[in-house]
């Protein structure tokens, strides 16, 4: 099983092109989307978080279960669900305004050691920023890195990071406990305070991760390892929006590793160029399907198989 740890929330997505268009609720949150992607791709997955008992929270849990995600690690509480108001640019890219004070996901408690059948655990986004939950997830990351493949997607939301310098130092402190790191090129430049993204990735590799996967929007995907760099081109798609695209990459990468018996840091380190090309192609095709429809809607295995075959 792959455990995904972090927040769930509701994206309020505009319906129409007007600046004050009506908003429609879409279930999401970076880690939540990763878990849904894994479940829909047929990979045993569990979600570790605290979810509200309000109406939105009930729908979030229902969608996890409908996607095949195990919910025994989900904690429930009466606090409100986090809301993210989404604004879409002309190219479909998203910007966010968050409503996070006193919400359920910030109050997650340490579950103790993860289940014995867990092979990997994924972290990222707001859950590693907002306290007190951030310290809980950090504790789980450091503890589980001793026995599991740990994956991290920082998925920066700069508007919620009150002290960027302190967050950058904290991020660097996680790297020895991270087996697989995924980041957008924008996040990489923010974390390193600008610079060449390939060199940034190589610096991170020297501090711990077996591989760094870079998402480059319309320029495709790259992976950097200690000895190599592999690039794959983007998949042509009519973009509706990019909500959940990076999360789908994270979920699909982990799914590919699961399906190829590579959920182990040393196995990740040993992947060949051909294997990385296959993994990135798989993840890129999954993300393209997500971009082709509104909100974070990762593909099911049958959809992705058909897309890869076509």
Outline, from the CA principal axes? globular
- Major sheet size, sense and barrel closure: 10 strands, mixed
Strand content: 15-25%
Calculate Rg over CA atoms: 18 Å
Question: Structural class, judged by helices and strands?
Answer: alpha/beta
Runs with pLDDT <50, length 5+?
none
Count helical runs: 10
How are helices and strands ordered from N to C? EEEHEHEEEEEHEHEHHEEEHHHH
Mean pLDDT: 94
Task: Estimate percent helicity.
Answer: 25-40%
Number of strands: 14
What is the CA–CA distance across the termini? 30 Å
How would you summarize the topology of this molecule?
Blueprint: E1 2-5, E2 9-14, E3 23-28, H1 30-40, E4 45-52, H2 55-66, E5 69-70, E6 74-77, E7 83-88, E8 94-99, E9 120-124, H3 133-144, E10 149-153, H4 164-174, E11 180-184, H5 185-192, H6 197-205, E12 211-215, E13 221-224, E14 229-232, H7 245-259, H8 265-269, H9 273-291, H10 301-309
Parallel strand pairs: 1-4, 1-9, 2-7, 4-5, 4-6, 9-10, 10-11, 11-12
Antiparallel strand pairs: 2-3, 7-8, 12-13, 13-14
Helix pairs in contact: 1-7, 7-9, 9-10
Question: Summary?
Answer:
Helix content is 36%, strand content 23%. By secondary structure, the chain is α/β, with parallel strands linked by helices.
């Amino acid at each position: 099983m792959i455990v995904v740890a972090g927040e769930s929330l509701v994206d309020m997505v505009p319906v129409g092109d007007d600046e004050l268009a009506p908003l429609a609720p879409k279930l999401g949150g970076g880690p939540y989307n990763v878990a849904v992607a894994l479940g829909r791709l047929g990979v045993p997955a569990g979600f570790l978080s605290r979810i509200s008992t309000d109406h939105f929270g009930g729908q979030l849990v229902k969608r996890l279960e409908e996607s095949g995600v195990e919910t025994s690690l989900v904690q429930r509480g009466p606090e409100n669900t986090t809301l993210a108001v989404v604004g879409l640019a002309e190219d479909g890219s998203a910007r966010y305004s968050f409503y996070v004070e006193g919400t359920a996901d910030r109050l997650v408690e340490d579950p103790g050691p993860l289940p014995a059948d867990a092979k990997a655990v994924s972290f990222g986004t707001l859950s590693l920023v907002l306290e007190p939950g951030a310290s809980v997830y950090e504790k789980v990351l450091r503890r589980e890195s001793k026995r599991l493949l740990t994956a991290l997607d920082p998925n920066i939301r700069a508007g919620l990071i009150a002290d960027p310098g302190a967050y950058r130092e904290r991020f660097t402190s996680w790297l020895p406990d991270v087996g697989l790191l995924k980041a957008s090129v924008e996040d990489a430049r923010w974390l390193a305070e600008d610079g060449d993204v390939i060199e940034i990735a190589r610096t991170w590799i020297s501090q711990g991760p077996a591989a760094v996967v870079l998402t480059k929007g319309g320029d495709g995907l790259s992976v950097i390892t200690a000895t190599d760099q592999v690039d794959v081109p983007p998949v042509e798609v009519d973009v509706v929006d990019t909500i959940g695209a990076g999360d789908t990459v994270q979920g699909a990468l982990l799914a590919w590793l699961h399906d190829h018996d590579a959920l182990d840091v040393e196995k990740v380190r040993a992947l060949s160029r051909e294997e990385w090309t296959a993994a990135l192609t798989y993840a890129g095709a999954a993300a393209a399907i997500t971009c082709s429809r509104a909100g974070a809607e990762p593909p099911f295995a049958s959809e992705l198989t058909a897309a890869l075959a076509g």
